[in-house]
Amino acid sequence: MPVVKQILKSSLTLLLNKLYYIFFLSFGWSLTVAAQNCFITLAGSVSDSHSGSPMEDVEAYIVELGKENWTDKKGGFLFTGLCPNTYHLIIQHVGCPPERILLNLTGDTTLQLSLEHHVNMLHEVDIHDKHDHPFYEEKVGIIALEENSHKSVASSISSIAGVSSISNGADIGLPVIHGLSGNRLTIINNGVVHSGQQWGADHSPEIDLNSAGEITLVSGAAGLRYPGTHMGGILILESGKIPSDPHIHGKVGSTAEFNGRGNTTNIQLYQGGGSSQWRIGSTLKYYGDRHTPTYYLKNTGTRQAHANAEFHRQWQNKLNWDVKYNYFSAQYGILRGSHIGNLTDLESAYSRAIPFYTDSSFSTALDAPRQWVRHHQFKSKFSRKIAEGEIEWHTGIQRNQRREYDVRRSGRSDIPALSLLQYSVQNELFWTDKKYIEAGYQFLGKNNWNVLETGITPLLPNYTAFTNGLFITYDRDFVNFGVEMAGRYDYTFRNIAKLSNTIPRIPLYYKDKFSNFSFLGRIQSRLSTKWQVMSEIALRQRPPEINEVYSFGLHQGVSGIEEGNINLKKESGIKSSMHLRGKLTKAFHMDVRAYAHFFDGFIYLLPLQEPRLTIRGAFPVFKYEQCDARLVGGDIVFKLNFSKRWNLSTSWAYVHGSNLTDTLPLNYMPPLNGRHVLSYEIPELKNWSGLKAELEHSYTGKQWHWDSSLDFIEPPGSYNLFNFHIGGTFDAIKSKPKFRIGVLNILNTSYRDYLNRQRYFAGALGRNFTLSWIQHF
């Protein structure tokens, strides 16, 4: 027994010592702090990073203490009675991305801070001696991306004037910039030309919007820096800079939608500070059948799972290494009523009020027809500063696998009707001097082949493609004007192996060689302290893509048979544009752009009038043709600040496309469209801060410039849509989560969109309620 008592006594002593130790760690620091001199003052001022003017009603919040302060008319804030310690200070304002600052306070401190306000307000006019964002850039910042985290890349930028979306349902779509899309649009994801099976209107870019910190629409000399077949513009997605903070931070966001009964959830973690930084993230998306105002769209659900990771390392401010990885995985359902079994039903489908195969109940099932895609992207970048400027070496590797499933007989719908695997590599070497010149060399390689699992003749051939490119740009600002010039040369070589279109099938082999030149000249002038004007002329060439030349068969994503044209030549275009922006008054901003784009050998998809009956069903037939063409259009943006809280923005865009060879319109051009947003901001209201309410009206006109020989049915009529959003930060919780509620298509309007290929068979989406939540930590 004495031994037992001794063991119990020793155990009790050890337990008391541990409790004392835990108590000291938990409360000893507080007792020490209490004894300190807690009379430190933290003062600061906040200004607009563009104009330098002070910003009022900006919230300054100390996370560890739960204390907040608001800037006055001079942009100043003040905290008193602070103890020596390390604090996280968050600076946030309506419409601005929050700034997180790590402070190690040992004495009175004064801060001078600036917020990036204009990057989240599209077409904001900014006339200063120095521009953080060039004239030719349109940006969508982190705030707008967070608000649209549940959308596709194409939908997220459709608020930019002159940008539309050509789609095949809710989640499948491509951007249309000044009437051009598909093969004429290049997307740069973290410095790498996005390479996948983007050869149709039904193929969305395999990119997770939540991995981007900023999207930039670029034209001009900067665009010639990038390889690709861009004839209109370039979309650049960047993940953004990782904040310099040695602690682990991040955000969690989620958006629930009523239409589709689905959810998009994203999480991002990052750590900065020192000489290395990292960030990881993941997104999950799950939706069932969408619905119009009167019926469900059967088999239109979505499944997505994405991941991203990046690592940055610096050595003595001279050498930098960036590594980034993105993974994209998705399954898309295709409207069941778009696959018809016979010619009679196909003709009937064009005029039906409700599509074939429509159910009266909601479903999350994904059956054929559907798409399955996996995409991997790896990017490495080395940059080093030298006496003559800076040198960069980029390497990008991508793997893209795509399967498409048709409705097949005898229970074979689980066997893909199209199965493609693609590997691509990109190597680049850039040199930038300290003043005006940038030059570089680029190599792109691609290997694309059909996986032998379909049992049918493939739509596309097997091929390898190699492109070598050289470019040089010159950009210089003078006193009242700036000059830009750029030149580019690309040489493309391709080996193609395919089966003949006639029976018996025999192997055919082709070799393609193309030399392409691009030039650009631009001058921009500051007319006054309030007005700027820009004039530009550009020549670009591109080779016809593989699908435009060699495709033959059913393209199930658009429910049509496509036939390539082996006689296609390279496409050349000359674009002239004029851009004026300025301030009519201090509160009234204006941005106007007009352009004319002339093409020699414009490649387009011509719908043939006779549908075709196959063993897989009855389908419309499309064939690639070439013509001389002209696109003339423009867009205009007005922004009016009624007061500190009331704002109105309105934009209009139109493009007129003509086939000059056959004196016909060009089909699938965006009709006249306008967007108007009235917003009201409340910096603080009870338990809320940064409240913002928006009422949006959009108008899309009927495409009157068309011809019955170019389409199967008449373009749908014009329509008006109304949307409403309200959101802000909930301050009653210390973590300060942000909430946003939205109602899309408030009036539950029935309509069909001319640029949605689904319009042949069904209407567009009806009313949709959304609830978004995001938590930064």
Q: Specify the helix fraction band.
A: under 10%
- The secondary-structure class comes to mainly beta
The appropriate CATH architecture of the largest domain is Beta Barrel
The end-to-end span amounts to 55 Å
Summed up, the domain count is 2
Strand content: over 45%
Biggest β-sheet description: 22 strands, antiparallel, barrel
State the oligomer. Answer: single chain
Supply the key terms.
single chain, 777 residues, mainly beta, Immunoglobulin-like, Maltoporin, Chain A, 2 domains, 22-stranded antiparallel barrel, five-stranded mixed sheet, globular, disordered N terminus
Describe this structure in words.
The chain is mainly beta. It folds into two domains: 41-116, Immunoglobulin-like (Sandwich); 137-776, Beta Barrel (Maltoporin, Chain A), CATH 2.40.170.20. It is 7% helix and 54% strand. The strands form six sheets. It has a 22-stranded antiparallel β-barrel. A five-stranded mixed beta sheet has the order 8-13-14-11-12. A hairpin with a 2-residue loop joins β11 and β12. The radius of gyration is 29 Å and the shape is globular. The model is unreliable at 1-35 and 119-133 (pLDDT under 50).
